[in-house]
Amino acid sequence: MVFDLLSLVTRFIEYLEVERNCSRLTVIKYRHYLVRLVDYLVNIQKIENPKLSDVNLETIRKFRIYLARQPGLHGDLKSVTQGYYVIVLRSFLKWAIKNDFMAMAPEKIEVPRNKEHSLKFLNNEQVTRLLNQPLLSTPIGLRDRTILELLFSTGLRVSELVALNRDQIDLKTREFGIIGKGGHARIVFISKDAASYVDRYLKSRIDKVKPLFINYLKRNSIIYDENKSRLTARAVQYLVKKYTRLAKLPVDATPHTLRHSMATDLLRAGADLRSVQELLGHANIATTQIYTHITDSRLREVHDKFHSGNRIH
């Protein structure tokens, strides 16, 4: 049986949802990128009812040129976004081949190279300035200080942070388990400072709702509706930006900046890259290698200190 391309895309999306247990956002993005390819074949290339065989190097070359000329928010579509299309398409083709459909080899499609971006992270003095901004005399300030402490202590993604429930946190062992990006489970550890603030924050709560971090209305009143009480990722992003401005930091910090800062702090103290990979929940060590600028500088220090050629004779 020969399936049309859109039917195969639908089957692939179902595979992501059911077998890979991908997040809703990932599924939405993958569907968008692949459906846009189908639309391109139908409306631009005028291929009626395209098949998997229509996805070849020449088609993909023309599709990439088409994408490059599409308007983005700030001019032409960013190369990094174009790269996402290629990554998704390669993933789709790998799935097709694995399921015995005749498809072109995904490795023939090259992922575009993007310009190197400097990694944003805070040094210890900047982290301290940021953490000291919330006013602990208010419920919101205490909550926000706890959020900042936990982000820096654990390296949690903002989506992982806002999904936490209060009964997940074990303050005695200072650890808890989460299901992170891609459905991967990992253990998260809390520093003594962060655990102290979590304990203080929870003891200040008079509500019984599940979420660890809750929303507030005016005058610090609590939203008791279970569905509305959980703080959103956008709210956490906003509060990090607010305290970054108050601290007058030279870095436009985000929750992810604190994740980078946590990893940088560990590596500078001597942690190995593989351990940091596990703590951050990276599925691939290649993702963690964005921090090699830290390990490279440590290796230079080791070489300068121990290599016989650097010793004064």
Automatic annotation (TrEMBL):
Domain of life: Bacteria
Limits of the Tyr recombinase domain: 117-304
Matches recorded under PROSITE patterns: CB, TYR_RECOMBINASE
GO molecular function: DNA binding
Compartmental location: Cytoplasm
Stored InterPro entries: CB, DNA_brk_join_enz, Integrase-like_cat_sf, Integrase_catalytic, Integrase_recombinase_N, Integrase_SAM-like_N, Tyrosine_recombinase_XerCD
Start and end residues of each Core-binding (CB) domain: 3-97
A Pfam family annotated for this UniProt entry: Phage_int_SAM_1
Keywords from the named record: Cell cycle, Cell division, Chromosome partition, Cytoplasm, DNA integration, DNA recombination, DNA-binding
Residue ranges crossing the lipid bilayer per the database entry: none
One Gene Ontology biological process: DNA integration
A cellular component annotation (GO) from this entry: cytoplasm
Presence of the UniProt keyword Endoplasmic reticulum in the record: no
PANTHER family recorded: PHAGE INTEGRASE-RELATED, TYROSINE RECOMBINASE XERC
Protein name: Tyrosine recombinase XerC
Species name: Candidatus Shapirobacteria bacterium CG2_30_35_20
Lineage, broadest ranks: Bacteria, Candidatus Shapironibacteriota
